[in-house]
TrEMBL record:
This is 2-hydroxymuconic semialdehyde dehydrogenase. NCBIfam families: OH_muco_semi_DH. Belongs to the aldehyde dehydrogenase family. CDD domains: ALDH_F8_HMSADH. It comes from Halopseudomonas phragmitis. One of its GO terms (molecular function) is oxidoreductase activity, acting on the aldehyde or oxo group of donors, NAD or NADP as acceptor. Transmembrane segments: none annotated. InterPro entries: Ald_DH/histidinol_DH, Ald_DH_C, Ald_DH_CS_CYS, Ald_DH_CS_GLU, Ald_DH_N, Aldehyde_DH_dom, OHmuconic_semiald_DH. The keyword NAD applies. Residues 15-482 form the Aldehyde dehydrogenase domain. Pfam families: Aldedh.
Length: 486
């Protein structure tokens, strides 16, 4: 059986504690590899290697040298595209048709975009008057923040890990990555690409393991990490923030959501249906930006529900290699238990199940997979847990509304504020409503349309800080002001 080891100081190493855990393909329940679980010893070695590389070859490189290497990393991912695709789809069970268009290309793009950006962002300068009349010049320079702890989730493993590692390295930092225990493979594979691209040893380190009382906690408790970037559940974000408070380390947190879609009667129905189908069901609903609450203006409510139901029932449930499949399993049987508990709760709370609500019949070879049906409900009260809590599954509740003000109030009613999707052909209404939604990202007549230069992150309990474009550079660098008396 294949073993997945830590990548520390440019070498693949096993755990001194001898502990390994299973990596399971959620499409069929088969163990695909055994993964070394890091103890404090490996985490410490990874942080030390990262510190040494920061103070050594990586820290001494010019921006041009560094960014040329990061372009080679992107090229290296593309050169081994099929290997990354296979690994990502085995770990997650997601359709290759999805991962080949989103996960793997974005893995490469995350290095290219930030390598180019760092070369083209100017820092500020201010001339000032002084009492003696000679004046002074203030100018700012950017310096790497240091050793960055990267803790990443399982839903878009390569995409979300490189979304952090790309800009962190472009800015001259070094990293210790703790990928999700569910999806260790592409993060491990990236070590080989880094080595081949000429990234000095110690710049990119990977430790595997779980969260609490394991690699995740050991990393956030390590005193020699300068900042943490995390994507995942809000509760985990709180735990990481508390650990980072020791030593006053900065955090960038992209957390949970319970995103609203608002569909006005003046929308283009075809676009609204297509976009809502993707936002509710893509990646089996395991996208933090996904829509789990859909508010539809009353005159088009029945038609919208009927058409979304028809679309959901046309999804092709199947394993990654099946070219027709556009709907894979959940990440694990454990996660399926959580999702199914909400499916049951919806029924208990009196929902009308428009479609789905259970587990699909699958052929024998997939019977042990974490399959679940795409599900749509109507008729729940606004305070049902199904409508207020992040489920992170392929499901949505649709509720009618009458006025624009009511839709805005409903959308803003929860403590989350990650993303919203708005469907209307009235451009004035689009701007008016978008401006009032309490969310870090608002899509109008689209969903998951990403320009990597834009600010990305959540408001309220959906996160702290923004990444993307110059905002990533803000987080991954320290701005130092130098004041020169002339
Ligand atoms: N992209 C997103 O917004 C994601 C949201 N979730 C949400 O979180 C729920 C639970 O899924 P999990 O995988 O358990 O998410 P999680 O937030 O616990 O895990 C994400 C990452 O954090 C690490 N982690 C967990 N506890 C930690 C700790 N105490 N210290 C340091 N690192 C820690 C995990 O090992 C993993 O690498 C899901 O049902 C979903 O609602 C999960 C994954 C991604
Ligand atoms: O496009 C991105 O950078 C991120 C997309 C999705 C997430 O952040 C998520 O699902 O957590």
């Amino acid at each position: 059986m294949k073993e997945i080891k830590h990548y520390i100081n440019g070498e693949y190493v096993g755990s001194a504690n001898g502990r390994l855990f299973d990596n399971v393909n959620p499409a069929n329940g088969k163990v695909i590899s055994r993964v070394h679980e890091a103890g404090r010893e490996e985490v410490d070695a990874a942080v030390k290697a990262a510190r040494a590389a920061l103070n050594g070859p990586w820290g001494r490189m010019t921006v041009e040298q560094r960014t040329a290497i990061l372009h080679k990393v992107a090229d290296g991912i593309n050169a081994r595209f099929d290997e990354f695709l296979e690994a990502e789809c085995q770990d997650t069970g997601k359709p290759k048709s999805l991962a080949s268009h989103i996960d793997i290309p974005r893995g490469a793009a995350n290095f290219k975009v930030f390598a180019d950006l760092i070369k083209n962002v100017a820092a500020e300068a201010f001339e000032m008057a002084t009492p003696d009349g000679t004046g002074a010049l203030n100018y700012a320079v950017r310096r790497p923040k240091g050793v960055i702890g990267v803790i990443s989730p399982w839903n878009l493993p390569l995409l979300l890990m490189t979304w952090k590692v790309g800009p962190a390295l472009a800015c001259g930092n070094t990293v210790v990555v703790k990928p999700s225990e569910e999806t260790p493979t592409t993060t491990a594979l990236l070590g080989e690409v880094m080595k081949q691209a000429g990234v000095p040893d110690g710049v990119y380190n990977v430790v595997h393991g779980f969260g609490g009382n394991s690699a995740g906690a050991f990393l956030t408790e390590h005193p020699d990490v300068d900042a943490y970037t995390f994507t995942g559940e809000t509760g985990t974000g709180e735990t990481i923030m508390k650990a980072a408070a020791n030593g006053v380390r900065q955090v960038s947190l992209e957390l949970g959501g319970k995103n609203a879609g608002i569909v006005f009667a003046d929308c283009d129905m075809d676009k609204a249906i297509e976009g809502t189908l993707r936002s509710a069901f893509a990646n089996c609903g395991q996208v933090c930006l996904g829509t789990e609450r859909v508010y539809v203006q009353r005159p088009i409510f029945d038609e919208f529900v009927a058409r979304l139901k028809a679309g959901a029932e046309e999804l092709v449930i199947g394993p990654p290699d099946d070219e027709r499949s556009n709907f894979g399993p959940l990440i694990s049987l454990k996660h399926r238990e959580k999702v199914l508990s909400y499916y049951q709760k919806a029924v208990d709370d009196g929902a009308s199940v428009i479609t789905g609500g259970g587990v699909p019949d699958m052929p024998a070879e997939l019977a042990h997979g974490a399959w679940v049906q795409p599900t749509i409900w109507t008729g729940l009260k606004d305070d049902s847990a199904v409508v207020t809590e992040e489920i992170f599954g392929p499901c949505c509740h649709i509720r009618p509304f009458d006025t624009e003000a009511e839709a805005i109030e409903l959308a803003n009613s929860l403590p989350y504020g990650l993303a919203s999707a708005l469907w209307t052909e009235n451009v004035t209404r689009a701007h008016r409503v978008a401006g009032q939604l309490e969310a870090g990202i608002v899509w109008v007549n689209s969903w998951f349309l990403r320009d990597l230069r834009t600010a990305f992150g959540g408001s309220k309990q959906s996160g702290i800080g923004r990444e993307g474009g110059v905002h990533s550079l803000e987080f991954y660098t320290e701005l130092k002001n130098i004041c020169v008396k002339l």
